[in-house]
Design a protein that fits this description.
By secondary structure, this protein is an all-alpha fold. The protein has one domain. About 50% of the residues lie in helices and about 0% in strands. The chain contains 6 helices and no strands.
Length: about 120
């Protein structure tokens, strides 16, 4: 099993269905994810749009929100491994994001406790 990829925000990329489908080249799953996103958000999303190599990857394949994520942009600019490593941990940008993904806070808090 591959090592976990933990995004800057604390989400686990390697657990994400879009990441898994991209890495296994499962176009049927990517199409299913695209259909779901299109219905959920009322926009047209293609299988190509859902392809993602994870937050830490250097490729341009980052799906949906990940491609324009303010948390990611901030962490990259600050040069931190994750937000847990940041001197400004718990900033407004991260706090707002964690309202949508409280499970990510658990991951970040665990990382921070081990620092």
């Amino acid at each position: 099993m591959a090592e976990q990829m933990i995004a800057y925000c604390g989400l686990i990329c390697t657990d994400c269905p879009a990441y898994v489908a991209t890495q296994t080249n499962d176009m049927a799953k990517l199409q299913e994810l695209a259909k779901h996103a299109s219905q959920q958000f009322g926009i047209t999303v293609t299988a190509q749009d859902t392809m993602c190599d994870g937050c830490l990857a250097t490729s341009d394949r980052k799906c949906g929100y990940c491609a324009e994520c303010q948390v990611r942009a901030c962490a990259v600019a600050r040069g931190v491994a994750t937000c847990a490593h940041c001197d400004n941990y718990g900033c407004e940008i991260l706090t707002e994001f964690l309202k949508m993904a409280p499970e990510a806070k658990v991951t970040l808090d665990a990382i921070r406790a081990d620092l």
